[in-house]
Design a protein that fits this description.
11 strands
Length: 250
């Protein structure tokens, strides 16, 4: 992370549920969870499995605006990517639920990507695990691979955030009730304050139905795990005058 591009310490008020929250931009990071080709692009794992990815694709536009606003003001951006080693050694033991369920989706299988190149489902450093082009990471962003639903499990995420002095997480990505919620739960256990941007997340299971997994996750997060807001509210908070000046030196 380029230290010169860190946000200046300023406290802004973000409209959210269950109540507004004040965040210090110098202690804030935007987390982008698994917005990669296997989940959000035609030809990726979800699409090949017959899962409708349109709702994930609709979350790309608002997320792109959030990332642009964050980078403009120096707020850190951290990407999480679900991806396994080529030999599947981090997929789990032969009878682990993680291995069995992922193999049903064809994890590790060789495919021909839409760009014509050979690739493999959910394998690191392939087209399948690349971030969707509209949200491509920039040079100063942090990119971390994970091999379980939570971004904190056996990764450097916690150490990275602590090194950067981060307390507040602005969470985006997919899917809402699985990798996003898992990451938010683990963040809560580590005393981070999480704000989920609802229009920047997506959930294909029961999408749009009352009582869906997504609706349940949003309710849980605003009730117990953190806050729920939206892209417009986050961008607006960055654009207005700070409610208080924080110390330049920490």
């Amino acid at each position: 992370m380029n230290q010169a591009k860190r946000a200046k310490s300023r406290v802004v008020r973000l409209d959210a549920k269950p109540e507004p929250i004040a965040v210090d931009t110098a202690m804030t990071a935007v987390i982008v969870v698994d917005m990669q080709n296997d989940f959000g692009a035609k030809g990726g794992m979800f699409d090949r499995a017959g899962i409708d990815v349109s709702m994930i694709q609709r979350a790309i536009g608002p997320t792109a605006k959030v990332l642009a606003a964050a980078r403009k003001t120096g707020v850190k951006v951290v990407y999480l990517k679900m991806g396994f080693r080529p030999d599947l050694s981090d997929l789990g033991s032969s009878d682990s639920v993680n291995r069995v369920r992922h193999l049903r989706f064809g994890v590790g299988e060789t495919i021909r990507a839409p760009n014509g190149r050979e690739s493999r489902i959910l394998i690191r450093d392939t087209w399948n695990t690349d971030i969707v082009p509209e949200l491509k990471p920039q040079a100063d962003d942090v990119v971390i691979y994970k091999h379980r639903f939570s971004g904190f499990y056996e990764t450097d995420l916690d150490a990275t955030l602590k090194k950067l002095g981060v307390k507040y997480l602005i969470v985006t990505g997919c899917t809402t009730s699985v990798c996003v919620e898992s990451t938010v739960r683990d963040a809560l256990f580590r005393d981070y304050a999480c704000v989920l941007l609802a229009d920047c997340t997506a959930e294909p299971i029961g999408h749009g139905l009352p009582g869906s997994n997504r609706e349940a996750s949003l309710l849980l997060i605003q009730a117990l795990f953190g806050w729920v807001s939206g892209s417009d509210e986050f961008i607006r908070a960055l654009e207005v005058e700070p409610i208080a000046a924080a110390q330049e030196q920490r």
